[in-house]
């Protein structure tokens, strides 16, 4: 272990206590930052909310938990008359304090989560019809609505946007990437950035998110360079009279062994991990939380073909690795083409990147070019000309056509990779079963990415729509209550963003709204209990 002693731990502890000491008063005896070998005790603080992930999902949730509240603007008229009538009924209330199920009833949009569609249409009315209407909301900071929380992320605020390939435009408009309360266009103008089109570079978005956290006063809730190693339940054990007692160290295995012999009820969450210091050392910590919100996104683990030879060093799985190979001149002068596998936008980016660098391409994908689920079918040609250029090549420059006509690009629709060979050859198989061997200079497998929830029990496989299967954005997102975003299979665990199927920034903001409303209601109930004289509880939710 590279833990560097009590002085380093004290520095990290003070950084947490500096803010939360003021927020939670005398409740803090010392912050729960301890060696992983130390057992938790009653003296350690339980935070109301720990947010894992500091991308746009985590940032937006922190914004709402910090007390910012959206109200219908006095002059606003929503283009949907039915929704506008509903909004007028409770104009004096913030959206967080209204019935989200009632407001979202009947709305349609490009998300399967109704609150996501609701919040999107309030922030970007009729955006899918090509209109650029202003939001119908204005924001107020209400300090009394603050819910203490902490946001933990591996890098600076903005999450994966800081590590995305910088040479490509975002798929969404800049306005759709913005977060509540700060116009992206106004921010770009204030930075004197020359935004040539409505679509922008990922590094612009990353800088915007980092600035957003600062200008909104959220930075006190954020901790960077933090790596989570486990998120697990704490349990309490009932005595013979039904009263809860602290059970200091009950492992998951022990709980399963004792199942049926002892009556156990679930308590709060224990979050363990380490913070990487500037000198490279790891400072371990342990936090306790009433609620945990998962906002990790899906960029952790690139999708794999699971075929023979995929681990060869010439088989890559990210655009950054491909870009590095090009910049180092590894593909310069190569006669054999680059093999690109996948039919999504990242694969299209790779095709464009190769073509721009005069590198020949063999493009392999399993779907038909006429498949209506291809992403290119959903993108207007005028707004996304470069992607439609790739799609046109996919359709017209197939291997079935005379190869002499398109030596720089050849597509293999309805083909799959069977294996990679050490002599830099690939075995393909067509839909009809015919096999073909191709030689290549480097292979690039870009078939999506999946979240890595290794820190949860069973890697989170138990909380998806399909139990005992890995969580994926499209095929098996985390199953949630559609209005609170609480996991249906795990109380006090919330999820938002790509983990629940909302890949686009414009829709993940609805998750923050749903969670903020749910936690605000629960906090109000707690206060009512305390004010009613029932303050002798044991802290079990």
From TrEMBL:
GO biological process: negative regulation of cell growth
InterPro entries with a match to the protein in the record: FAD/NAD-bd_sf, OSGIN1/2
UniProt GO molecular function: growth factor activity
PANTHER family reported in the protein's UniProt record: OXIDATIVE STRESS-INDUCED GROWTH INHIBITOR 2 (PTHR15192:SF4), PROTEIN CBG05349 (PTHR15192)
Protein name: OSGI2 inhibitor
Species in which this protein is naturally found: Platysteira castanea
């Amino acid at each position: 272990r590279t833990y560097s002693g009590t002085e380093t731990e004290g520095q990290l502890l003070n950084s947490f206590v500096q803010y939360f000491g003021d927020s939670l008063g005398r409740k803090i005896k010392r912050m729960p930052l301890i060696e992983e070998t130390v057992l938790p005790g009653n003296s350690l603080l339980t935070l109301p909310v720990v947010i894992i992930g500091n991308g746009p999902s985590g940032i937006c949730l922190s914004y709402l938990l910090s007390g910012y509240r959206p109200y219908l603007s006095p002059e606003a008229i929503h283009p949907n008359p039915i929704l506008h009538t509903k909004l007028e009924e409770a104009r004096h209330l913030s959206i967080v304090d209204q019935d989200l199920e009632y407001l979202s009833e009947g709305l349609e949009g490009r998300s399967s989560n109704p609150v996501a569609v609701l919040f999107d249409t309030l922030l970007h009315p009729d955006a899918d019809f090509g209109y650029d209407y202003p939001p119908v909301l204005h924001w107020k900071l209400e300090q009394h609505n603050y819910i203490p929380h902490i946001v933990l992320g591996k890098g600076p605020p903005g999450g994966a946007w800081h590590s995305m390939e910088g040479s490509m435009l975002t798929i969404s408009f800049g306005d759709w990437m913005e977060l509540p309360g700060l116009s992206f266009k106004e921010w770009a103008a204030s930075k004197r950035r020359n935004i040539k089109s409505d679509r922008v570079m990922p590094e612009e978005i990353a800088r915007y998110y980092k600035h957003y956290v600062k200008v909104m006063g959220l930075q006190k809730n954020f901790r960077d360079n933090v790596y989570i190693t486990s998120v697990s339940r704490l349990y309490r054990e009932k005595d013979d009279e039904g009263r809860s007692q602290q059970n200091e160290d009950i492992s998951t295995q022990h709980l399963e062994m004792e199942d049926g012999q002892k009556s156990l009820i679930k308590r709060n969450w224990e979050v363990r991990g380490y913070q990487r210091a500037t000198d490279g050392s790891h400072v371990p910590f342990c936090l306790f939380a009433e609620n945990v919100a998962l906002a990790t996104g899906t960029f952790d683990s690139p999708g794999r073909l699971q075929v023979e030879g995929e681990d060869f060093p010439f088989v890559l799985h990210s655009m950054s690795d491909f870009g590095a190979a090009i910049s180092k001149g590894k593909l310069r002068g190569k006669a054999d083409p680059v093999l690109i596998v996948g039919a999504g936008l990242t694969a299209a980016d790779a095709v464009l990147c190769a073509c721009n660098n005069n590198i020949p391409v063999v493009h392999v994908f399993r779907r038909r070019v006429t498949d209506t689920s291809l992403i290119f079918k959903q993108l207007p040609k005028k707004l996304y000309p470069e992607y439609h250029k790739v799609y046109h090549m996919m359709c017209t420059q197939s291997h079935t056509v005379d190869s002499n006509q398109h030596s720089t690009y050849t597509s293999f629709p309805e083909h799959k990779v069977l294996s990679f060979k050490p002599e830099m050859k690939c075995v393909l198989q067509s839909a009809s079963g015919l096999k073909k061997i191709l030689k290549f200079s480097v292979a690039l497998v870009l078939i999506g990415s999946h979240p890595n929830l290794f820190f949860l029990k069973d890697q989170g496989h138990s909380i998806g729509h399909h139990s005992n299967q890995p969580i994926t954005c499209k095929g098996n997102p985390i199953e949630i209550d559609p209005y609170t975003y609480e996991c249906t299979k795990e109380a006090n665990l919330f999820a938002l963003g790509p983990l629940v199927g909302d890949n686009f920034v414009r829709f993940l903001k609805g998750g923050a709204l749903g969670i903020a409303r749910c936690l605000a209601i629960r906090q109000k109930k707690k206060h009512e209990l305390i004010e009613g004289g029932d303050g002798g509880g044991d802290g079990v939710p």
